[in-house]
Amino acid sequence: MSNMIPNPEAYFRKLVPPRDALLVALEEEARQEGIPIVGPVVGELLFILARATQARQILELGTATGYSGIYLARACDVFEGRVVTLERDGGMARRAQANFEKAGLENRVEILVGDAFEEMTKMQGPFDLAFLDIDKESYAGALSHCERLLKPGGLLVADNVAFRGADEFNRVVSAHSHWRAVHLLSLLPQHSPEKDGLCLAVRV
User: Fold this and answer.
1) In the predicted model, is pLDDT for residue 1 greater than 80?
2) pLDDT at residue 25 is higher than 60
3) Which residues pair with 155 in a beta bridge?
4) Which strands sit side by side in the sheet containing 82-87, from one edge to the other?
5) Residue spans per domain, the chain
6) Of 133, 134, 153, 121, the residue nearest 57 (C-alpha)
7) How many beta carbons lie within 10 A of that of residue 108, not counting itself?
8) pLDDT value at position 62?
9) CA neighbours closer than 13 Å in the CB half-sphere of residue 177
10) CATH classification code of 8-203
11) How far apart are CA 161 and CA 139, in angstroms?
């Protein structure tokens, strides 16, 4: 049995992926204003998952300032895909739109402002990937919408599943016959918070 790296948290904090100036600026903005964002580790994970699954149609629930949406849009840009992102706060949506334009991704992202469930009811899909990052108490209610909108084999990624509000979602998605799910408790440097859970689920 091999020996573990000493002080693995400090070690893995040194492996945080590099970012461009726009993403770094959004991280600093989030720190100053207390805006919860996924941070560079989960952002890069979203990029990798979207690129690996060749996702062309991506649904995001919870835009905020557009940080995670930039990673998702950059991932599907090579496939000429698009991200539909839902945000209930009009002010945040305007800030996100400006950031998508700074990133040169305005043609890849559509922001819908309003209640996520109401907007999802109007959608037809299918989507290849969905990213869930709204109020955690709403995760369980969003699951049936994601099941309808994701294609068979589509991937659902849920952030913050170590929050108490996500408990019902965690139990339902784990037991549901239409999903294969895994929950990961992780160290996520510069995520909010740094120690949190992620759920990856495939619609089967």
Assistant:
1) no
2) yes
3) 129, 202
4) 109-113, 82-87, 57-61, 127-132, 150-158, 195-203, 179-187
5) 8-203
6) 153
7) 21
8) 97
9) 0
10) 3.40.50.150
11) 9
